[in-house]
Design a protein that fits this description.
The chain is mainly α. The chain is built from 16 helices and two strands. Helix 1 runs antiparallel to helix 5 and helix 13 packs antiparallel against helix 14. It is globular, with a radius of gyration of 21 Å.
Length: 410
Protein backbone atom coordinates (compact mmCIF):
# COMPACT_ATOMS: atom_id res chain seq x y z
CA UNK A 1 0.00 0.00 0.00
CA UNK A 2 1.50 3.32 -1.08
CA UNK A 3 1.69 6.38 1.12
CA UNK A 4 -0.95 8.10 -1.03
CA UNK A 5 -3.41 5.22 -0.62
CA UNK A 6 -2.75 5.18 3.13
CA UNK A 7 -3.53 8.91 3.34
CA UNK A 8 -6.72 8.56 1.31
CA UNK A 9 -7.99 5.61 3.36
CA UNK A 10 -7.05 7.26 6.65
CA UNK A 11 -8.95 10.41 5.66
CA UNK A 12 -11.97 8.27 4.82
CA UNK A 13 -11.81 6.47 8.17
CA UNK A 14 -11.33 9.75 10.09
CA UNK A 15 -14.44 11.29 8.52
CA UNK A 16 -16.46 8.08 8.92
CA UNK A 17 -16.16 8.10 12.70
CA UNK A 18 -16.12 11.89 13.03
CA UNK A 19 -19.66 11.80 11.62
CA UNK A 20 -20.80 9.17 14.12
CA UNK A 21 -19.08 10.75 17.11
CA UNK A 22 -20.44 14.22 16.33
CA UNK A 23 -24.14 13.35 16.74
CA UNK A 24 -24.28 10.09 18.68
CA UNK A 25 -22.64 11.19 21.94
CA UNK A 26 -24.76 14.27 22.62
CA UNK A 27 -28.09 13.07 21.20
CA UNK A 28 -29.53 12.08 24.59
CA UNK A 29 -28.78 15.48 26.12
CA UNK A 30 -30.38 17.29 23.18
CA UNK A 31 -33.51 15.12 23.22
CA UNK A 32 -33.94 15.49 26.98
CA UNK A 33 -33.81 19.25 26.47
CA UNK A 34 -36.72 19.22 24.03
CA UNK A 35 -38.89 17.08 26.29
CA UNK A 36 -38.05 13.45 25.51
CA UNK A 37 -38.52 11.01 28.39
CA UNK A 38 -35.99 8.30 29.21
CA UNK A 39 -37.98 5.75 27.19
CA UNK A 40 -38.16 8.19 24.27
CA UNK A 41 -34.37 8.63 24.34
CA UNK A 42 -33.90 4.85 24.50
CA UNK A 43 -36.16 4.54 21.47
CA UNK A 44 -34.09 7.15 19.63
CA UNK A 45 -30.90 5.17 20.26
CA UNK A 46 -32.71 2.00 19.20
CA UNK A 47 -32.82 3.44 15.68
CA UNK A 48 -29.04 2.97 15.50
CA UNK A 49 -29.46 -0.72 16.31
CA UNK A 50 -32.20 -1.03 13.71
CA UNK A 51 -29.73 0.35 11.19
CA UNK A 52 -27.17 -2.22 12.33
CA UNK A 53 -29.65 -5.05 11.78
CA UNK A 54 -30.63 -3.75 8.34
CA UNK A 55 -27.03 -3.20 7.23
CA UNK A 56 -26.14 -6.86 6.44
CA UNK A 57 -29.15 -7.17 4.15
CA UNK A 58 -28.31 -3.92 2.38
CA UNK A 59 -24.64 -4.78 1.90
CA UNK A 60 -25.33 -8.39 0.95
CA UNK A 61 -28.13 -7.66 -1.50
CA UNK A 62 -26.74 -4.53 -3.15
CA UNK A 63 -23.09 -3.75 -2.38
CA UNK A 64 -21.78 -7.30 -2.80
CA UNK A 65 -23.64 -7.91 -6.05
CA UNK A 66 -24.25 -4.80 -8.14
CA UNK A 67 -22.28 -1.61 -7.37
CA UNK A 68 -18.80 -0.54 -6.34
CA UNK A 69 -18.54 -0.02 -2.59
CA UNK A 70 -17.14 3.52 -2.78
CA UNK A 71 -20.03 4.67 -5.00
CA UNK A 72 -22.65 3.24 -2.65
CA UNK A 73 -20.83 4.94 0.23
CA UNK A 74 -21.03 8.23 -1.61
CA UNK A 75 -24.76 7.93 -2.22
CA UNK A 76 -25.49 6.82 1.36
CA UNK A 77 -23.45 9.57 3.02
CA UNK A 78 -24.87 12.34 0.82
CA UNK A 79 -28.40 11.01 1.44
CA UNK A 80 -27.65 10.67 5.15
CA UNK A 81 -26.38 14.25 5.33
CA UNK A 82 -29.64 15.51 3.86
CA UNK A 83 -31.77 13.40 6.24
CA UNK A 84 -29.79 14.25 9.37
CA UNK A 85 -29.89 17.98 8.62
CA UNK A 86 -33.67 17.80 8.29
CA UNK A 87 -33.95 15.83 11.54
CA UNK A 88 -31.92 18.49 13.37
CA UNK A 89 -34.73 21.01 12.81
CA UNK A 90 -37.60 18.70 13.82
CA UNK A 91 -39.33 18.82 17.21
CA UNK A 92 -42.16 16.29 16.95
CA UNK A 93 -41.08 13.03 18.57
CA UNK A 94 -42.51 10.69 15.93
CA UNK A 95 -40.89 12.71 13.13
CA UNK A 96 -37.48 12.63 14.85
CA UNK A 97 -37.67 8.86 15.42
CA UNK A 98 -38.66 8.18 11.81
CA UNK A 99 -35.92 10.52 10.61
CA UNK A 100 -33.30 8.80 12.76
CA UNK A 101 -34.39 5.40 11.44
CA UNK A 102 -33.92 6.63 7.88
CA UNK A 103 -30.57 8.20 8.74
CA UNK A 104 -29.20 5.08 10.46
CA UNK A 105 -30.30 2.91 7.54
CA UNK A 106 -28.09 5.21 5.46
CA UNK A 107 -25.15 5.31 7.89
CA UNK A 108 -24.78 1.83 9.39
CA UNK A 109 -24.11 -0.03 6.10
CA UNK A 110 -21.16 2.32 5.48
CA UNK A 111 -19.32 0.81 8.46
CA UNK A 112 -18.91 -2.40 6.45
CA UNK A 113 -18.27 -0.49 3.22
CA UNK A 114 -15.31 1.51 4.58
CA UNK A 115 -13.75 -1.79 5.64
CA UNK A 116 -14.37 -3.28 2.21
CA UNK A 117 -12.73 -0.29 0.49
CA UNK A 118 -9.79 -0.48 2.90
CA UNK A 119 -9.16 -4.22 2.57
CA UNK A 120 -9.45 -4.11 -1.21
CA UNK A 121 -6.73 -1.45 -1.45
CA UNK A 122 -4.29 -3.21 0.91
CA UNK A 123 -1.71 -5.85 0.11
CA UNK A 124 -1.21 -6.82 3.79
CA UNK A 125 -4.46 -6.12 5.68
CA UNK A 126 -3.31 -7.77 8.93
CA UNK A 127 -0.62 -5.16 9.46
CA UNK A 128 -1.99 -2.24 7.44
CA UNK A 129 -5.65 -2.12 8.50
CA UNK A 130 -5.01 -1.26 12.20
CA UNK A 131 -2.91 1.73 11.09
CA UNK A 132 -5.85 2.97 9.03
CA UNK A 133 -8.57 2.05 11.54
CA UNK A 134 -6.93 4.07 14.33
CA UNK A 135 -7.77 7.23 12.36
CA UNK A 136 -11.44 6.40 12.89
CA UNK A 137 -10.93 6.53 16.66
CA UNK A 138 -9.08 9.82 16.24
CA UNK A 139 -12.00 11.14 14.18
CA UNK A 140 -14.40 10.34 17.05
CA UNK A 141 -12.06 12.13 19.50
CA UNK A 142 -11.75 15.22 17.31
CA UNK A 143 -15.55 15.37 16.97
CA UNK A 144 -15.87 15.63 20.76
CA UNK A 145 -13.13 18.24 20.99
CA UNK A 146 -14.71 20.28 18.19
CA UNK A 147 -18.08 20.35 19.93
CA UNK A 148 -16.71 21.16 23.40
CA UNK A 149 -14.08 23.70 22.46
CA UNK A 150 -14.27 25.03 18.91
CA UNK A 151 -18.05 25.42 18.63
CA UNK A 152 -18.96 25.98 22.27
CA UNK A 153 -17.84 29.60 22.03
CA UNK A 154 -20.39 30.25 19.30
CA UNK A 155 -23.37 28.24 20.59
CA UNK A 156 -24.48 28.43 24.21
CA UNK A 157 -24.94 25.06 25.94
CA UNK A 158 -24.07 23.41 22.64
CA UNK A 159 -24.57 19.81 23.76
CA UNK A 160 -28.24 20.51 24.46
CA UNK A 161 -28.78 21.85 20.92
CA UNK A 162 -29.05 20.30 17.47
CA UNK A 163 -25.76 21.91 16.36
CA UNK A 164 -23.79 18.62 16.75
CA UNK A 165 -26.26 16.98 14.35
CA UNK A 166 -25.74 19.76 11.84
CA UNK A 167 -21.96 19.33 12.23
CA UNK A 168 -22.35 15.60 11.55
CA UNK A 169 -24.52 16.34 8.50
CA UNK A 170 -21.87 18.68 7.08
CA UNK A 171 -19.12 16.09 7.64
CA UNK A 172 -21.31 13.41 6.08
CA UNK A 173 -21.77 15.52 2.96
CA UNK A 174 -18.00 16.03 2.70
CA UNK A 175 -17.37 12.30 3.13
CA UNK A 176 -20.08 11.45 0.62
CA UNK A 177 -18.50 13.58 -2.07
CA UNK A 178 -15.03 12.37 -1.12
CA UNK A 179 -16.14 8.74 -1.39
CA UNK A 180 -16.53 9.02 -5.15
CA UNK A 181 -12.78 9.68 -5.41
CA UNK A 182 -11.73 6.58 -3.42
CA UNK A 183 -10.02 3.54 -4.99
CA UNK A 184 -12.39 1.41 -7.04
CA UNK A 185 -13.85 -1.48 -5.05
CA UNK A 186 -15.98 -3.60 -7.39
CA UNK A 187 -18.74 -5.90 -6.06
CA UNK A 188 -17.27 -9.13 -4.70
CA UNK A 189 -20.21 -11.34 -5.63
CA UNK A 190 -21.25 -9.88 -8.99
CA UNK A 191 -23.78 -12.14 -10.62
CA UNK A 192 -23.85 -14.43 -7.59
CA UNK A 193 -26.64 -15.25 -5.17
CA UNK A 194 -26.65 -14.19 -1.54
CA UNK A 195 -29.09 -15.79 0.88
CA UNK A 196 -30.58 -14.39 4.07
CA UNK A 197 -28.74 -17.19 5.86
CA UNK A 198 -25.41 -15.90 4.54
CA UNK A 199 -26.11 -12.26 5.44
CA UNK A 200 -27.18 -13.01 9.01
CA UNK A 201 -24.22 -15.30 9.62
CA UNK A 202 -26.47 -18.29 10.28
CA UNK A 203 -23.91 -20.67 8.77
CA UNK A 204 -21.95 -20.08 11.97
CA UNK A 205 -24.71 -21.55 14.13
CA UNK A 206 -22.87 -24.86 13.86
CA UNK A 207 -20.31 -23.39 16.23
CA UNK A 208 -22.97 -23.36 18.95
CA UNK A 209 -22.36 -27.09 19.38
CA UNK A 210 -19.16 -26.03 21.15
CA UNK A 211 -20.23 -25.19 24.71
CA UNK A 212 -17.63 -22.48 25.23
CA UNK A 213 -18.50 -20.73 21.97
CA UNK A 214 -22.19 -20.89 22.89
CA UNK A 215 -21.39 -19.35 26.29
CA UNK A 216 -19.32 -16.65 24.56
CA UNK A 217 -22.14 -15.88 22.12
CA UNK A 218 -24.74 -15.69 24.89
CA UNK A 219 -22.55 -13.48 27.07
CA UNK A 220 -21.76 -11.24 24.08
CA UNK A 221 -25.49 -10.66 23.67
CA UNK A 222 -26.06 -10.08 27.38
CA UNK A 223 -23.07 -7.80 28.01
CA UNK A 224 -24.19 -5.54 25.16
CA UNK A 225 -27.35 -4.73 27.11
CA UNK A 226 -25.60 -2.65 29.83
CA UNK A 227 -23.40 -1.07 27.14
CA UNK A 228 -26.51 0.69 25.80
CA UNK A 229 -26.84 2.58 29.11
CA UNK A 230 -23.43 4.15 28.50
CA UNK A 231 -24.14 5.19 24.93
CA UNK A 232 -27.62 6.59 25.57
CA UNK A 233 -27.31 8.36 28.91
CA UNK A 234 -23.71 9.10 29.91
CA UNK A 235 -23.61 12.48 28.20
CA UNK A 236 -26.89 13.55 29.80
CA UNK A 237 -25.75 12.26 33.21
CA UNK A 238 -22.42 14.08 33.12
CA UNK A 239 -24.07 17.30 31.98
CA UNK A 240 -26.61 17.10 34.80
CA UNK A 241 -23.97 16.50 37.51
CA UNK A 242 -22.05 19.56 36.31
CA UNK A 243 -19.05 18.27 34.36
CA UNK A 244 -17.80 20.88 31.86
CA UNK A 245 -16.96 20.10 28.21
CA UNK A 246 -18.60 16.68 28.45
CA UNK A 247 -18.23 15.70 24.78
CA UNK A 248 -14.48 16.34 24.97
CA UNK A 249 -14.21 14.55 28.32
CA UNK A 250 -16.01 11.51 26.94
CA UNK A 251 -13.47 11.32 24.10
CA UNK A 252 -11.01 10.17 26.77
CA UNK A 253 -12.74 6.83 26.36
CA UNK A 254 -11.54 6.66 22.76
CA UNK A 255 -8.05 7.75 23.82
CA UNK A 256 -7.96 4.81 26.21
CA UNK A 257 -9.13 2.56 23.37
CA UNK A 258 -5.99 3.44 21.44
CA UNK A 259 -3.74 2.94 24.46
CA UNK A 260 -5.17 -0.44 25.43
CA UNK A 261 -5.17 -1.57 21.81
CA UNK A 262 -1.39 -1.09 21.85
CA UNK A 263 -0.90 -3.13 25.03
CA UNK A 264 -3.29 -5.93 24.05
CA UNK A 265 -0.58 -8.21 22.57
CA UNK A 266 1.30 -8.12 25.90
CA UNK A 267 -1.90 -8.77 27.84
CA UNK A 268 -2.77 -11.72 25.61
CA UNK A 269 0.56 -13.35 26.43
CA UNK A 270 -0.06 -12.99 30.17
CA UNK A 271 -3.82 -13.55 30.48
CA UNK A 272 -5.13 -15.63 27.60
CA UNK A 273 -8.58 -15.40 26.03
CA UNK A 274 -10.79 -16.22 29.03
CA UNK A 275 -9.17 -13.73 31.38
CA UNK A 276 -9.03 -11.01 28.71
CA UNK A 277 -12.76 -11.35 28.17
CA UNK A 278 -13.44 -11.57 31.90
CA UNK A 279 -11.34 -8.48 32.71
CA UNK A 280 -13.27 -6.60 30.01
CA UNK A 281 -16.57 -7.52 31.68
CA UNK A 282 -15.32 -6.60 35.15
CA UNK A 283 -14.28 -3.21 33.78
CA UNK A 284 -17.95 -2.64 32.85
CA UNK A 285 -18.96 -3.44 36.42
CA UNK A 286 -16.40 -0.96 37.78
CA UNK A 287 -17.41 1.72 35.28
CA UNK A 288 -21.04 1.75 36.37
CA UNK A 289 -20.08 1.46 40.05
CA UNK A 290 -17.95 4.60 39.62
CA UNK A 291 -20.83 6.43 37.92
CA UNK A 292 -23.23 5.36 40.68
CA UNK A 293 -20.85 6.44 43.46
CA UNK A 294 -19.15 9.51 41.99
CA UNK A 295 -20.12 13.17 41.94
CA UNK A 296 -18.64 16.38 40.61
CA UNK A 297 -17.96 17.92 44.03
CA UNK A 298 -15.51 15.58 45.77
CA UNK A 299 -15.46 12.37 43.73
CA UNK A 300 -15.02 13.68 40.19
CA UNK A 301 -12.15 11.22 39.67
CA UNK A 302 -14.71 8.41 39.68
CA UNK A 303 -16.54 9.99 36.76
CA UNK A 304 -13.34 10.30 34.74
CA UNK A 305 -12.32 6.75 35.71
CA UNK A 306 -15.66 5.48 34.42
CA UNK A 307 -15.00 7.17 31.09
CA UNK A 308 -11.39 5.99 30.77
CA UNK A 309 -12.41 2.40 31.51
CA UNK A 310 -14.13 2.41 28.12
CA UNK A 311 -10.85 1.32 26.53
CA UNK A 312 -10.71 -1.86 28.61
CA UNK A 313 -14.47 -2.41 28.31
CA UNK A 314 -14.37 -2.26 24.52
CA UNK A 315 -10.93 -3.60 23.58
CA UNK A 316 -10.70 -6.45 26.06
CA UNK A 317 -14.15 -7.80 25.26
CA UNK A 318 -15.11 -6.81 21.72
CA UNK A 319 -11.69 -6.84 20.06
CA UNK A 320 -10.64 -9.97 21.95
CA UNK A 321 -13.97 -11.51 21.00
CA UNK A 322 -13.38 -10.79 17.31
CA UNK A 323 -9.98 -12.47 17.53
CA UNK A 324 -11.49 -15.43 19.40
CA UNK A 325 -14.16 -15.88 16.72
CA UNK A 326 -11.56 -15.65 13.95
CA UNK A 327 -9.50 -18.40 15.58
CA UNK A 328 -12.49 -20.56 16.53
CA UNK A 329 -14.27 -20.59 13.18
CA UNK A 330 -13.13 -22.47 10.12
CA UNK A 331 -12.00 -20.11 7.37
CA UNK A 332 -15.05 -21.06 5.28
CA UNK A 333 -17.44 -19.58 7.86
CA UNK A 334 -15.31 -16.87 9.53
CA UNK A 335 -17.21 -14.04 7.86
CA UNK A 336 -20.52 -15.64 8.85
CA UNK A 337 -19.30 -16.11 12.43
CA UNK A 338 -18.27 -12.46 12.72
CA UNK A 339 -21.61 -11.45 11.22
CA UNK A 340 -23.48 -13.55 13.76
CA UNK A 341 -21.65 -11.99 16.72
CA UNK A 342 -22.20 -8.52 15.25
CA UNK A 343 -25.92 -9.25 14.97
CA UNK A 344 -26.05 -10.47 18.58
CA UNK A 345 -24.14 -7.47 19.97
CA UNK A 346 -24.66 -4.34 17.86
CA UNK A 347 -28.09 -5.50 16.75
CA UNK A 348 -30.03 -7.49 19.34
CA UNK A 349 -28.04 -6.75 22.52
CA UNK A 350 -27.85 -2.99 22.11
CA UNK A 351 -31.46 -2.89 20.92
CA UNK A 352 -32.69 -4.60 24.09
CA UNK A 353 -30.35 -2.42 26.14
CA UNK A 354 -31.60 0.82 24.58
CA UNK A 355 -35.19 -0.01 25.51
CA UNK A 356 -34.24 -1.25 29.00
CA UNK A 357 -32.10 1.83 29.66
CA UNK A 358 -34.96 4.15 28.76
CA UNK A 359 -37.41 2.30 31.00
CA UNK A 360 -34.89 2.32 33.86
CA UNK A 361 -34.34 6.07 33.61
CA UNK A 362 -38.08 6.71 33.63
CA UNK A 363 -38.58 4.39 36.61
CA UNK A 364 -36.01 6.30 38.66
CA UNK A 365 -37.21 9.77 37.61
CA UNK A 366 -39.55 11.58 40.01
CA UNK A 367 -40.88 15.06 39.21
CA UNK A 368 -38.27 15.45 36.50
CA UNK A 369 -35.34 14.60 38.82
CA UNK A 370 -33.32 11.51 37.93
CA UNK A 371 -31.89 9.28 40.64
CA UNK A 372 -28.65 8.62 38.80
CA UNK A 373 -27.04 6.33 41.43
CA UNK A 374 -30.00 3.95 41.26
CA UNK A 375 -30.00 4.12 37.46
CA UNK A 376 -26.32 3.17 37.18
CA UNK A 377 -26.54 0.32 39.70
CA UNK A 378 -28.89 -1.50 37.28
CA UNK A 379 -26.31 -2.04 34.47
CA UNK A 380 -23.61 -2.54 37.13
CA UNK A 381 -25.41 -5.49 38.71
CA UNK A 382 -26.44 -6.84 35.31
CA UNK A 383 -22.83 -6.76 34.04
CA UNK A 384 -21.64 -8.46 37.26
CA UNK A 385 -24.13 -11.28 36.69
CA UNK A 386 -22.97 -11.76 33.08
CA UNK A 387 -19.30 -11.74 34.17
CA UNK A 388 -19.98 -14.40 36.80
CA UNK A 389 -21.94 -16.52 34.32
CA UNK A 390 -19.10 -16.30 31.81
CA UNK A 391 -16.41 -17.11 34.39
CA UNK A 392 -18.24 -20.21 35.61
CA UNK A 393 -19.24 -21.66 32.23
CA UNK A 394 -16.53 -20.68 29.72
CA UNK A 395 -13.61 -23.07 29.34
CA UNK A 396 -10.58 -21.95 27.39
CA UNK A 397 -9.07 -24.13 24.69
CA UNK A 398 -5.37 -24.17 25.62
CA UNK A 399 -4.18 -24.94 22.09
CA UNK A 400 -6.35 -22.20 20.65
CA UNK A 401 -5.18 -19.77 23.31
CA UNK A 402 -1.59 -20.44 22.32
CA UNK A 403 -2.47 -19.72 18.69
CA UNK A 404 -4.09 -16.43 19.61
CA UNK A 405 -1.14 -15.40 21.74
CA UNK A 406 1.13 -15.98 18.77
CA UNK A 407 -1.00 -14.98 15.77
CA UNK A 408 2.04 -14.46 13.55
CA UNK A 409 2.57 -18.24 13.45
CA UNK A 410 -0.92 -19.01 12.22
Amino acid sequence: MSGLIYTRLSTMMFLQFFVWGAWFVTLGTYLAGIGFSGSDIGLAYLTNNIGAMVAPFFVGLIADRFFASEKIMGVLHVSGAFVLYLVSDLELQSSIIIGLILYNICYMPTLALVNAVSFNAMNSPNTQFPKVRVWGTLGWIVAGLTISFLLAGYVENIEATSTPMKLAAAASLILGLYSFTLPNTPPQNAGGRTSVKDMMGLDALALMKDRSFAVFALCSLLISIPLAFYYAFTNLFLNEVGMPAVAASMSLGQVSEVVFMLVMPLMFARLGVKWMLFVGMIAWVLRYAFFASGDWDSLSWMLYAGIVLHGICYDFFFVTGQIYVDQKADKTIRASAQGLIALLTYGMGLAIGSLLAGLTVDYYTVDGVKNWPSIWWVPCIFAAFVALLFHLLFKEDIKQSAAIKAPASS
